[in-house]
Amino acid sequence: MKKVILYTDGACSGNPGVGGWGAVLMYGNAEKRISGADGATTNNRMEMTAVIEGLKCLKEPCEVEVYSDSAYTVNAFENGWIYGWQKNGFRKADNKPVLNVDLWEQLIKLTRIHKVRFIKVKGHTDNEYNNICDKLATDAVKNFKSQL
Length: 148
Hints:
Blueprint: E1 2-13, E2 17-27, E3 30-41, H1 43-56, E4 62-68, H2 71-78, H3 81-87, H4 101-113, E5 115-120, H5 128-146
Parallel strand pairs: 1-4, 4-5
Antiparallel strand pairs: 1-2, 2-3
């Protein structure tokens, strides 16, 4: 199984507002950078979208280390929340509905294809690839706004 490193980040201008996401995939010496934007979204949705779009780039099942500064996304998998939510019909312990179910369902499906490990990184510090992803996401927001 190929081993891939995936760095991701999301950004939002207003929350909700115009949002962007960025991702960097690395395999061996190869590197691929991707990004995109949405006109009406939230920061959490963009963080999750970055992971989804990165995983969707993989053409075969891979072992993937996902590095993200999104505690929301990382903790959902690493602390097992996602499996409890799914088991309870995407309801939290307080019986309130889980937000972003459409994206959680996509992530669950992708993590069944790939062997994924989520790793939390500190955002906006000296992590080179987190900073690259942040720039990809914020540039996507700027580009989207410039086309309005």
